Amino acid sequence: MTTLLLRLAGPLQSWGASARFVQRTTENAPTKSGVLGLLAGAEGRPRDADLSDLAALRFGVRIDRPGSRIRDFHTAENRDTGRALPLSDRYYLADAVFLAGVEGEDTFIRRLYTAVDAPRFLPYLGRRSCPPSHPLLLQDNASLSSLPLEDALRNTPWQGGRGPLSHRPPREQPPAELNMLLDCPPQDTPDIQLRDTPLSYNPSHRRYAMRGIQARHATASAPVHDPTAHLRPAPTARHDSPAPPLATDDF
Amino acid sequence: MYLTRFRINTSRSSARALLASPQRLHGAVDMAFPKPPPRDGNGPRVLWRLDQAPTNRINLLISSPDRPDLTHLAEQAGWPTLGTEGWTTFAYGEFLNKLAAGGEWAFRLTANPLHYIRREQDPPGSPTKRAPHMTVGHQIGWLIKHQERAGFEVLPNEQAPTDNDTKADAGAEEPPMQWRYQLVVHERTPVRFPQRAERSKSRRETSSSPGADVRFTRATFDGQLRITDLAAFRRTLTHGMGKSKAYGCGLMTLAPVR
């Protein structure tokens, strides 16, 4: 089994799972259908192509920077007829960073990796108007991992730092814990359910199946400064014992 | 030497009063020592710092030559029955004894970076004045300037820029100060408070001088260092670095590099 990791970072992202009609909402994290659609597009599959191999991949996402939700009151008109299109509210995640991973059979994952490296259709973050601001693939082949999905997500360094170029150190400290949302194994009870497993992207009839999700936590790999973890508690002072000798050291 | 970690109960109003005033917190730390340490400037001194820990905890760290008794503080601003999780004193001296030159450590230092200047309008030869370093670049420059005398060196950032990045940066000759070291500066705050917090009204009226406020700039450095001069470094850890040591600056702590 091999895992492919993608860094999803951009000024705006929008990952709809239950968005219908004029309320185009977004989930808090990338959806399986959104990321698999990105991979299918990178491979150049047409909209009505078979997706069963992609949908069988195990999917998980780590929330490195949750971002903030913003609403766009959307007005548009048909250029040919001049008639206004329905007014809609479109929701986005601003300034968010995610690490998404798919786990599957080795040759297939490597094929997806080369496809993302030179995509046939341009990738976007959930909505066509949301281009990624960083390369999707991590540096130094870190995107391909031989670890299982959960370990690969845990072991990858935090991507949420603000430095736009790779050699800049992050300006901020990572949070102590990062949230992860993983596909639930069939024998377990899911924490959340979402209708975002793609069955068909055919624009005339898109179809999605339910997906069970487990919520997990990962510690950010950049360490939190704890100056006392490696020290031994001082023995409690007894009234009959003399002052401890260390206190009289010359430094 | 002892290092003490005290967890502050931020939902108590007396704790918030302490957090709001470095002056009061200085007093509270001072009260933790039945025998005040000598103030002649030779021996190790009491240093303290407020540290933001994960899950919104605020810790008070105290490094001191004598063992502090924080019972009064636990009753005022902590959890009196929490035991060692509320406050623990660690054997710092044995850790300092085990330090070796060349060792690499992750460090955190809250300090007051400043320099001495003579402004243009000042007459030549007049005494110089303290002026705070306000920008990230200047504050890192302050630490780099004082690192040799303090007995350590901040590790350089060895991640070489890739080709694309060098092209993008072609205009600048060398990268800015903050990219060259494994160092982050955060919580850069100007601090200002009246010199006597509990001053009575009549005294304020009689001794009203407009410059009576205490003002300094505080910055927290997180990074990685290598010990170069062991004796000087031990002195840095126990005597503090920079100014405003009474008000929560100058304490450097170490943690293993992960």
UniProtKB/TrEMBL annotation, chain A:
The keyword Ion transport does not apply. Keywords: Antiviral defense, Plasmid. CDD domains: Cas5_I-E (cd09756). Pfam families: Cas_Cas5d. Signal peptide: none annotated. Residues 153-176, 216-251 are annotated as: Disordered. It comes from the Bacteria. NCBIfam families: casD_Cas5e (TIGR01868), CRISPR_cas5 (TIGR02593). This is Type I-E CRISPR-associated protein Cas5/CasD.
Automatic annotation (TrEMBL), chain B:
It holds the Pfam family CRISPR_assoc. Residues 156-178, 190-215 are annotated as: Disordered. SUPFAM superfamilies: CRISPR-associated protein. The keyword Ribonucleoprotein does not apply. Residues 190-206 have a biased composition (Basic and acidic residues). InterPro entries: CRISPR-assoc_prot_Cse3. This is Type I-E CRISPR-associated protein Cas6/Cse3/CasE. The gene is cas6e.
